[in-house]
Structure formats: C-alpha cells, structure tokens
Amino acid sequence: MLKIVFSLAALSVTIAAQTNRNISDTDISAGLKEALGKGVRTAINSLGKENGFLLNPRVKIPLPKSLQRLEKGLRIAGQGKSVDAFVASMNNAAEKAVPVAVDVFVDAIKQMSFDDARKILFSREKDAATQFFRRTSEETLRGKFRPIVEEFTEKTGVTQKYKTMIGKAGFAARLLGEDATDLDGYVTQKALDGLFLLVADEERKIRENPIRRTTSLLRKVFGVLR
Q1: What is the pTM (predicted TM-score) of this model?
Q2: What is the widest separation between alpha-carbon atoms in the chain?
Q3: Contact 91, 60 (CB under 8 A)
C-alpha cells in the first residue's frame, strides 16, 4: 500500500513537471501580462473614481503619522470638520493620479522576459507579478503621479486646508515630522501603495480562484498551478 502511495505521488510530480514544461514561454508571458492588465484596470476603476480612496478603508489615506498626534486635540477643540476636510482633500488628490498607471503599465510589462515570466508564474508568492510590476514601474509612476497630485492640491486648496488646520493646532504644530511637511510626497506614496495593493488582490484571486480566470488564456496559464 505504501509503495502505491509513493508511486502515485511520484506520478503526480511527474505530470506537474511535464505540464509546466509543456506550456510555452509565449503563453506564460501573455497570460501574466493579461493578469496584470486585469489587475491594473480593476484597481484603476476602483480607485480612480470619486471617493475611490476615501470610501475604501483598506486604502484610505489617513493623516500623516506626525499629524495624528494632533488630531485628537483638534477634534476635542471642535476642529473635527477641518481635519475631515483635509483628509478628504488628500484622498481626492490621490484618485486623480491613478489613471496614468495604464500607460506606465504598458511600458513596464515590456521589460518582462520569458525567464521572468516563468519564474513569476511558478513563484510561491501569490503577488509575484505585482511585485515585478512594482519593481519596474514604481519610480516612473511616482514621477507621473506627483505632478498630478501637486496640481490638484494647489487647484483645490489642499495646502490652505492644511495651513488652516495646523494654525488651529497652535504650538504643537512645531513637533511635526517630514511626512507632514512634504504632503505631496506623502499623498503620492500612499496613492502608489493603494494601487499596488489592489493589483495584488486581483492577482491572488486569479491564482487561487478558477472563476476569476475569465479568458481561455488565463485558464490555460494559471490552470497549471492547481
């Protein structure tokens, strides 16, 4: 009986290995590109709409940590509306930036070699493709996101909201750290974090749930992972 179990296990490993070899590098690369594309589109559709960040607790941009020390005091002092307006303005700035990720994605995915694609597909990391996307595109995205964030914050008075809020904090505002003095940089980073988080979510779903493989290519490529 033990021999039979070992034989079946060996056969399973052999079949899996043959399956891995039989799927072409071209299919793997195309499948990963399609999965990443699906993830990016899903993330952008979710985050790039009105209040896409603000109403999603997983990606909502909070006050910078050094400002959070002041928040309680401001709310006790009756300045809760100022705090809420500032938080909303940061999140609204982030939602304006994420749609530019589409073009950056197209450029980043061109950097994926066949060897990259095979390693990513058979990685134990459920977000391996997203990690690749982040490594190859984050700095480019940062360069594109920040000007959009800066333009929005200037146009909508985010900086003024911030100054108003800080002004009401009094002497305690002197304790603020860098994350509260470079607000555009802070919002840009949080926007990037939210984008990659949702792209990773979609990749995990495609890897783990056959129902999420909505095309024949996705079924073919990710089907070898079962």
Answers
A1: 0.80
A2: 78
A3: yes
Number of domains making up the chain: 1
Residue with tokens 């984050």, as numbered in its chain: 138
Q: Which residue has the tokens 């909502």?
A: 60
Does residue 202 have a pLDDT over 70?
A: yes
Distance CA(67)–CA(189), nearest Å, equals: 17
User: Which amino acid type is present at position 140?
Assistant: T
Q: Could you tell me which of 157, 33, 140 has the C-alpha nearest to residue 85? A: 157
Give 27-61 pLDDT, tens digit per residue: 999 999 999 999 999 999 999 999 999 999 999 99
Q: Is residue 115 part of a domain?
A: yes
Q: What is the mean pLDDT of residues 153-157?
A: 79
In a domain, 84, yes or no: yes
Q: In sequence order, what are the residues at sequence separation of 6 or more whose Cβ sits closer than 8 angstroms to the Cβ of residue 40?
A: 101, 102, 105, 133, 199
The Cα–Cα gap between 110 and 100 comes to 17
Q: Based on C-alpha coordinates, what's the Rg of the chain?
A: 23
Q: Is residue 11 part of a domain?
A: no
Cα separation, 24 vs 114, in Å, equals: 9
What range does the domain containing 163 cover? 25-225
Q: Residue 226: pLDDT above 60?
A: yes
Say what the pLDDT of residue 210 is. Answer: 92
Q: What's the confidence (pLDDT) of residue 129?
A: 93
Is 46 domain-assigned? Answer: yes
Name the 3-class secondary structure at 110: coil
